[in-house]
Amino acid sequence: MDKLSIHALFLKVTLWNLQKARPLWTTNLQECKTEEDGPQPAGQFFNPPLAHSLSVASCGNIFSCGAQDGKVRIFRVTGVRFDRELEFQGHSLGVSQVLFLPGAYWLLTGGNDGKVLLWDVSGDVGKQQKSPAKSLQRRKAQAPAAARKDGKLNKVASNDQAGVLPKLSIDHGEKVNWISCTEIKGSKRVLVADQSSSISVYPLPEP
Description:
The chain is mainly β.
């Protein structure tokens, strides 16, 4: 997306033309509701879905957004606008970091709940979707994947619940402030930083 830039601020995600320094398209995350979302009950007030982090896939026209409501939203840029492709949730608190892995529609997310999750969204964003909400309901659980917790690898239980499920779950234990992916000695690793002075390193499966 040369000449274009995506910017997240509070509730809004904006596509900018950098040459002309003007916004091209803006989406309010509060208006991005799936069919499962209903009206807010009277007397209940929730924090709005503040946008925390953005990541653009290597294809250049797909980007993800992590928000305060614990949801991950994926958008497709078409011309001077973008449309929501997919929306799913795996974190119990806000999604502080999102990161597309290079060369694949694999997405890393880090949350305020201390978890790092790996998602394979290639089946959803690899092709155009007419209804992201309906696609979310149709998607079935994938084969179980390994999860790392306290230095041990465990299996993520599979079930028949519809929706996007993480391929890998890392229980980091502290709020995730930053994530990155690198290769160490020929193997992919995810780097995780929190409020401490150290960086944690976890193994990643190959796409």
